[in-house]
Amino acid sequence: MFGYRVPAPNEALLISGRKQRGAEALPFKIVTGHGVFVAPIFSRATRLTLSMQEAEVMEDCYTQQGITLSVHAVIAFKVGDDHESIASAARRFQGDQRQMPTLVGRIFSGHLRSIIGSMTVEAIIREQQTLADAIVDASKTEMARIGLAVDSLQISSIDDKGVGYIRALAAPHQARVNQEAKVAQAAADRASAMAQQESVRHQAEYARQTAIAQAQYQAEIDQAQQTAAQAGPLAAARAAQDVLAERAIVAQRNAELRQAELIAEVIRPAEAEAERIRALARADADATKLSAEAAAAQGRIALDQAIIDKLPEMLRAAAEGLKGANVTVLDGAEGLNSVVASLAAQGMTMLETLRTGMRVEAPPAKPSMAVAPPPAA
To answer: What pTM was estimated for this model as a whole?
Structure first.
């Protein structure tokens, strides 16, 4: 927007041209952190940097012993953040802000000469941070008066301009350092030599152990070879025995197998055939015996039939003989049954007598031809 100004984060906006209220009012208005409207023609806005700046000091200073030292220091400073510091800096540097480092360098040069003049070279060399803090403390009042604040001061270098005083001060320390360095180097060399000796000893011991191990290994190899050479014939004989034993086992197994084959192929069939022939012979003999018995039975049956055929006639003749006989039957029916039973008994007796007398002997059976089994293999 036309007439509207916004200061950057690291700067302050100074607006002048309008009368400020109050007895202690500033001739300008300070604006930071926000924008403001600046009326054209009636007001003017300028900017004051608040960023960090640097000033260098290189000054020849005299110490308490009268020795000249060339001191180089670097000061980091900036405008204070409060309105009072901004106003003080604006009154002095608003026209030319490039004068800030020059003025700061002059201020610190005076304090640097003053403080170094009260110190010895040894103190300055040993206590550089104390020297820097003393210079900052001495300059705070003047720096605050012009609205500046010091962040840090670093002493970059201190030189005696070729006099050699600082070198002389460092000589004892350097000598001690050199001596300690030599001692350390000697100790290191000694340790290195001892380490080398130890390494050589270890290498020799390793070589000796290796030689012993190799000798033992070779002896074991020789012993093994000798044992193998001596055991060769014995091993061959044992191997031959083992082969013969295996062959005997194989031969025995082959014989058993052949025997089993013979039993299966010859003996078992022969035994089966012999058993068949014996069975046939027994069957033939049994058949012959049965035929003879059947013939005898048939003869007996024929005889019995003939006798039975004659029995009625015989009984009739017996009855005829009894017809004219004076026989008295007692006991009625029971007596008659007894007479009939007696006649039947006599008939059976006669029948048995006739069977005995008329039995014809059956011709003897022909013996069967039995085949003897073949002898066992």
So the answer is: 0.44
